[in-house]
Write a structure and sequence with these properties.
Layout lengths: L2 H15 L5 E2 L12 H15 L5 E4 L5 E4 L6 H13 L5 E4 L2 H13 L2 H15 L1 E8 L5 E7 L3 E3 L10 E11 L2 E15 L2 E11 L6 E4 L11 E5 L8 E4 L16 H4 L1 H20 L4 E4 L7 E3 L5 E3 L12 E4 L9 E2 L6 H19 L17 H6 L3 H28 L20 E4 L8 H13 L5 H9 L3 H14 L5 H5 L7
Parallel strand pairs: 14-17
Antiparallel strand pairs: 1-11, 2-3, 4-19, 5-6, 5-13, 7-8, 8-9, 9-10, 10-11, 10-12, 14-18, 15-16
């Protein structure tokens, strides 16, 4: 940083003190943000459980000294989110548009961004924190990329009951200046200034404290080529971002459009499970095998010499790596060797955890036996999940409704960005068709459905003319409607032509 930049920062600090320069402690201090800070404190709590990061435990030793030790959590939040994300979305998911041109373009962008591989991971964090956002943009090579924002990086501005139409995205960069860390926060505001006028505002803030956003500085400090304000008139019809909210009403804040994280849904159960897990770990660590040896057994051998002098031999010592034996002082020779190993309460901990895991499964929407043992003492299988119409299957359906809506919004946002020629270096739009296209999403149900059995049953339905061939191909082969129609055309072309005349004609008699 040169001397001119330092002088500018000093002037800005002075201006911030008298209110001339904008300064924020929290992002929610901005008047455009429509969400209270308590919502993001809640998201931070969810993040703590997802990352299994807890403060150290303070305790008193048997001698009365205060000590601190790490808290050993169960990582149940991470495991549950990972499990649910894996049954919601995988690489076999098929995304297609009814319009062939739009379908080809969307497919190329999603493949280029490795969407099917990346989205399962993003979905996992969305389940943990309550939501995730995605925003397509154009990079320096004129390629459309997808930028992701976690729940704590997404700030709604205005919203209605069914969707968020305006929002701010935050990203933080740490630089070292004068051997000190400096924190820069970029805020990107997406706002509607009219029915067809879409404005993007970029603001950069600088702080020397990690928990403060700081004062507003020029974008040139980090982004010399970035514009402060960009306005699109009569070009954009829908927001160029998509937000995935977890299903269910936000009971913590009824006016908030943000979703609930997994820990919000079963906080008491998860907290108690972690405490029991930590206590059990501690009991195992302190309950290692100990054997008490009387001190008399370890005394050195005494020898009486010919000159009536007494000499002691080498004292008996334990192996240097031995930590099982403990020397007992006092009058303990009569008691002999004692087993001092404490009994570990494994069955009590197991039963307590199993009860709490059942409650956790019920609160977050998993079938009984997903993490605990089922009523018959075994782990629930995928076939039992379907036959019992289990909670996991119902929960999956609720999440898929939200996921499908998110994918549709993202695909339309991609088409919106591709249709803006000003975003590309040559000024030419990459897509000129209709943006409001119909998007189909085919999820892989292989986790819950016996595909071979389904195919056999539906083949019978097709033969009985109660199921269209088109639907049969789409359901069992993962084809889009266009691909299924192409299959049917090829089948018709390859089938032999049995004309009516050739069937009705009588064979000539041979004399």
């Amino acid at each position: 940083m040169n001397i001119v930049d330092r002088i500018k920062i000093l002037f800005r600090k002075g201006g911030a003190k008298v209110g001339m320069v904008k300064q924020l402690n929290k992002i929610t201090d901005d008047e455009r943000i429509a969400i209270s800070q308590s919502e993001y404190d809640r998201i931070d709590m969810n993040l703590k459980y997802y990352q299994n990061k807890f403060p150290k435990v303070e305790y008193l030793t048997s001698n009365g000294y205060k000590r601190r030790r790490p808290f050993h959590g169960s990582e149940l939040d991470k495991k549950a989110c990972e499990r649910l994300a894996s049954i919601l979305f995988n690489e076999q998911c098929e995304i297609s548009a009814k319009d062939s041109v739009a379908n080809e373009f969307i497919e190329s962008v999603l493949v280029q961004n490795h969407f099917n591989q990346v989205f399962e991971e993003k979905l996992e964090t969305a389940i943990a924190l309550g939501g995730v956002a995605a925003r397509p943009y154009v990079d320096d090579q004129d390629n459309i990329r997808i930028a992701w924002a976690y729940a704590k990086q997404f700030y709604p501005l205005r919203n209605n009951t069914d969707r968020i139409s305006e929002a701010a995205f935050s990203s933080r960069t740490v630089k070292t200046e004068n051997d000190m860390p400096v924190y820069y926060t970029l805020l990107e505001f997406h706002e509607w200034t009219g029915p067809t006028s879409y404005k993007i505002t970029n603001e950069l803030y600088r702080s020397e404290q990690v928990d403060v956003i700081g004062m507003q500085v020029s974008l040139s400090a980090l982004y010399p080529n970035m514009q402060e304000v960009v306005v699109f008139d009569d070009i954009i019809k829908a927001p160029i971002f998509a937000y995935l909210k977890t299903p269910g009403r936000n009971s913590k804040n009824l006016e908030s459009p943000l979703g609930l994280g997994l820990a919000d849904r079963a906080l008491v159960q998860m907290k108690t499970i972690n405490q029991i897990y930590d206590q059990f770990y501690r009991e195992i660590k302190l309950g290692k095998r100990k054997i008490g040896i009387p001190e008399e057994f370890l005394r050195s051998e005494i020898a009486y010499n010919a000159d009536d002098s007494i000499s002691e031999g080498m004292p008996m010592v334990f192996d240097t790596d031995q930590d099982v034996y403990v020397k007992l002082r006092g009058d303990s020779a009569d008691s002999g060797i004692q087993n001092l190993t404490p009994e570990i309460r494994a069955s009590q901990y197991h039963d307590s955890l199993d009860i709490l895991l059942r409650s956790f499964e019920d609160y977050v929407g998993f079938s009984a036996g997903t993490f605990s043992l089922s009523s018959n003492g075994s782990i629930t299988t995928a076939t039992e999940v379907v036959s019992n119409n289990s909670k996991t299957y119902q929960t999956r359906s609720s999440y898929l409704t939200q996921v499908e809506g998110f994918i549709k919004d993202l695909c339309k946002a991609i088409l919106e960005v591709a249709s803006i020629g000003e975003l590309f270096s040559d000024g030419q739009a990459r897509y000129t068709g209709d943006v409001d296209v119909e998007i189909d999403t085919h999820f892989d149900d292989g986790v819950f459905v016996d595909k071979d059995k389904q195919k056999e049953e539906e083949r019978t339905d097709v033969a009985a003319s109660i199921m269209p061939k088109l639907q049969y191909l789409m359901r069992n082969y993962g084809l889009s409607e266009q691909e299924a129609k192409q299959w049917l055309r090829q089948v018709d072309e390859e089938s032999p032509d049995f004309s009516t005349n050739s069937i009705d004609e009588e064979p000539e008699e041979v004399e």
